[in-house]
From TrEMBL:
Region (Disordered): 124-147
Alphabetical GO biological process terms: GPI anchor biosynthetic process
Membrane topology classification: Multi-pass membrane protein
Subcellular compartments: Endomembrane system; Golgi apparatus membrane
GO cellular component: endoplasmic reticulum membrane; Golgi membrane
Lineage top rank: taxon: Eukaryota
Protein name: Post-GPI attachment to proteins factor 3
Length: 326
């Protein structure tokens, strides 16, 4: 118990919570919430066992699909490093390790074809700031997958930790990492729809997203941790993410059949998020709506990485065909 940060006082609060719940039920009242949260039956040192296990399985599914993607898609694919970065999620917090992207020209299908220019680093100004890294190392993309800033897997790690032991630190890390995942999904969409043709725009947009993330975290950390504001901010950027991906999928659904997988992922995630609206006491004091939502998102990783794999192989085929014509 002590390894998970449980103190004698915490354990006393836990026992008192169940005494209170018993008194409420004995008098015929509804199950009460404590500090806005339902009571959960602790298992070992897991404060919310079902949500903790589900978060771990989401991270495991993401990791397994990442390895499948890396073994199926050559690193020369235009979207390879950006897709891998979505799983490890290399963000601008580590500018010296940003993934390079080839410069593509716009085609009639928005899919792009390689130009006559050689592959270039997407953010040269950021790369020049790297310490102890040569231009050759940066251009080759070494270190991209193992950057210390890993948003997607990092988010599931902190989600697991938060549901294992709810503290101010674990709660904030869970919330901040979730916001970062949404922003990185928007960035991934930007690279796929705009960045392959106009890297400078993607670079500027990335800087904007980093600024928004910094302001968001700074406000919640230094001014006031406002749950309402955090929810509104995530919903707003989530809508941008959904609408942008759906617009691109609808525009290219006939030329690129595999984008239907992406469309299915977007719609599934939006539909499954409605589970969060179901606010009920945990079944068997373990399974609440949030845990069910976490469990339901596990298969979505398989579908999304399947789309990324198909799309990356398509872009690689297009780029190789362009080079052969040249």
């Amino acid at each position: 118990m002590s390894l998970a940060g449980w103190t004698c006082r915490d354990d006393c609060k836990y026992e008192c919570m169940w005494v209170t719940v018993g008194l409420y039920l004995q008098e015929g009242h509804r199950v009460p919430q404590f500090h806005g949260k339902w009571p959960f039956s602790r298992f070992l040192f897991f404060q919310e066992p079902a949500s903790a296990v589900a978060s771990f399985l989401n991270g495991l599914a993401s990791l397994m699909m990442l390895w499948r993607y890396r073994t199926s898609v050559p690193a020369s694919s235009p979207m390879y490093h950006t897709c891998v970065a979505f799983a490890w999620a290399t963000w601008a917090l580590s500018p010296a390790r940003s993934a390079p992207l080839p410069t593509l020209t716009r085609s009639s299908t928005d899919c792009g074809a390689l130009s006559e220019k050689p592959p270039a680093v997407l953010f040269p100004s950021l790369h020049d700031q790297g310490r102890g890294s040569s231009r050759k190392e940066l251009g080759s993309g070494k270190g991209t997958e193992w950057s210390p800033s890993r948003v997607s897997l990092n988010a599931w790690f902190w989600s697991t930790v938060f549901h294992t032991r709810d503290t101010d630190l674990t709660e904030r890390m869970d919330y901040f990492c979730a916001s970062t995942v949404i922003l990185h999904s928007v960035y991934l969409c930007c690279v796929r729809t705009v960045g392959l043709q106009r890297p400078a725009r993607a670079s500027a947009f990335r800087a904007l997203l980093l600024l928004l993330l910094t302001a968001h975290i700074s406000y919640l950390s230094l001014v006031r941790f406002d749950y309402g504001y955090n929810l509104a901010a995530n919903v707003a950027i989530g809508l941008v993410n959904v609408l942008w991906w759906l617009a691109w999928c609808l525009r290219n659904r006939r030329q690129l059949p595999h984008v239907r997988k992406c469309m299915a992922v977007v719609l599934l995630l939006q539909g499954l998020s409605l589970l969060e609206l179901l606010d009920f006491p945990p079944l068997f004091w373990v399974l609440d709506a949030h845990a069910i939502w976490h469990i339901s998102t596990i298969p979505v990783h398989v579908l999304f990485f399947s789309f990324l794999e198909d799309d990356s192989l398509y872009l690689l085929q297009e780029s190789e065909a362009k080079f052969k014509l040249d």
